[in-house]
Fold this sequence. Notes:
The protein is α+β, with helices and mostly antiparallel strands. The chain has helices spanning about 10-20, 60, 240-250, 290-300, 315-320, 325-340, 365-380, 390, 415-425, 425-430; strands spanning about 1-5, 40-50, 65-75, 80-85, 95, 100-105, 120, 130-135, 140, 145-150, 155-160, 170, 175-180, 195, 200, 205-210, 215-220, 255-260, 305-310, 345, 385, 395, 395-400. Helix 3 (about 240-250) crosses helix 9 (about 415-425) and helix 6 (about 325-340) packs parallel to helix 7. Mean pLDDT is about 90; it is low at about 1-35.
Amino acid sequence: MRIPSTVRSAALAAAVSLAGSALVFTGSVADQSSNQSSGRSEWVGSWSAGTSKAEATGFTATGLNNQSARYVVRPSVGGDKVRIRFSNVYGDRPIQIGAATVAKANTATPAQSDLDPASQRTLTFGGSPTAVMNKGAELLSDPVNLRVADLTTLVISVYYPTATGPTTWHASSTQENFFGPGDLTGATDGTPYITTRACCWTFLSGVDVQTDETDGAIVVLGDSIADGLLSTLNGNNRWPDQLAERLAADRRNDVPGVLNVGMAGNRLLHDSPDPILGAPNGIEQLGVNALARLNEDVFSQTRPSVVITHLGVNDIWMDNAGTDQVVAALKQLNAQLHERGIRSVGATITPFEGLSNPGGWTPEKEATRQAVNSWIRSNHEFDGMIDFDKAVRDPQAPSKLRADFDGGDHIHLNDAGYQAMANAVPLQLVR
């Protein structure tokens, strides 16, 4: 049975689909020296997903019970060992993990759910193949001896023997994941996973690798543009994925991890339960405001060295936020990153004229976007700046996306547009 996106009401579809233009990247370049590895093998974040609370109805509210989930991810950098991160931060009870495995994908078959049997490893937690993930807590697996190269797709299988209740999840995965009855963690092909969801990772929050060839991780704090909305399903064509490909191909320095915690619909100033687009109780999967996400999605990452903050467009088009409000929030993000010794890179907000959903583009909102971008380009608080606006705007109509980059809704991009964004990042700025 194939199930498309999980909880897409008309309002949700509008919110997710529209929630991705303003990318504001926070990463601090106070230290412009090139990063060199210490020569020691250390843990670093290689893949991540921002998480949110379950919706009030639907499968995320019900959760999983005597079911297995098979998640597909593509970590950015490789290493000699891996460990997996799980999150129950938004759960209402302890969650049992009955079994879990990790393996490389089987590249000889087209099925996303198939894995390479020779690479399959059992995950343990404190030496045990089972674990309890406490309410409101995270869970880190033991290290697994599994040599993976940069950009190697992994398949993570988890059995939830008892009712999980509401899930902690990432809603807009742009990647198929798979679910089936009973303990299917040992299955090497995906046939027993009878339900395919194109939407989400449940309870999974990160992958770390152990390597001596990287010096930290780049965290992308963004919205649906970082989430790659309207890019090719299962294609890994989000702009942070394509940035990771550029970094992996450039072997002049050690390769940093790229951790994409973009969350469709996320805003600087408002939380997901706030009324939005005709939904009086909000839409939980949009997440809490960006400042409230820092502890969970940025500071808890393994060796974060740079943050690219790409946020603000949703505040402008959804909430009609003013320039001063958006700038004040960006300044505060920047200050908190610097306080933690993390380099902060800002990025300009991309165009969205033509967005016609309720609360869409207006000349007044365009004036706010331009004013925020002017501040991002001219201020000296960030350690660096990425001009995404310049990279993807129509030269003849700068308030619009280039037609060949437009994903179709006039705010999100297609694969080529996301590639242009990745190409606009100066690599020396984020190393």
